[in-house]
Amino acid sequence: MPLLDSDLDSVRKLFELNVFGVLGVTQAFAPLLVKSKGTVVNVSSVASFSPIPWHGPYCATKASLNQISDTLRQELDPFSVTVILVSFPFHLEKTSLSFNARVR
After folding, report:
1. Catalytic entry in 6, 58, 64, 96
2. What residues are paired with 87 via a beta bridge?
3. Residue 58 known to be catalytic
4. Tens-digit pLDDT profile for residues 34-81
5. CATH code, domain with 24
6. Are 87 and 45 in contact (CB under 8 A)?
7. Are 48 and 66 in contact (CB under 8 A)?
8. 80 catalytic residue (yes or no)
């Protein structure tokens, strides 16, 4: 659906899931991550940096997640917490879904 025709309540729900949900879980586990010098792994998409027409809200949420991940990486580095962002390009074939990961 074109961005101009997007239902804003649906877009808000998508941001709640793909952006605020991820940040909320990271905040909740931050004390354990710092204590264990753990790793945060966020899953993104090539849609975050290569917009797909009629998928604007999804692309925007994944771009937001990329920025949050990049910022968390810098903020958590002094605590020896690693932040990894995995971006999956994918394409549909007749009978299967193929994935190749890009890790940052």
Report:
1. 58
2. 44, 102
3. yes
4. 999 999 999 999 889 888 889 999 999 999 999 999 999 999 999 999
5. 3.40.50.720
6. yes
7. yes
8. no
**Whole-number average pLDDT of the chain:** 88
Closest CA to 64 of 5, 16, 1: 16
Tokens of 98: 């193929």
If one counts the domains in the chain, the total is: 1
Give the up-direction half-sphere exposure of residue 8: CA atoms within 13 A in the CB hemisphere.
Answer: 0
Q: Domain containing 38: what range?
A: 3-103
Measured between alpha carbons, how far apart are the two ends of the chain, in Å? Answer: 30
Under DSSP, is residue 94 helix (H, G, I), strand (E, B) or coil?
A: coil
In the set 10, 36, 44, 48, the catalytic residue is: 44
Q: Is 67 helix (H, G, I), strand (E, B) or coil?
A: helix
Prediction pTM value: 0.82
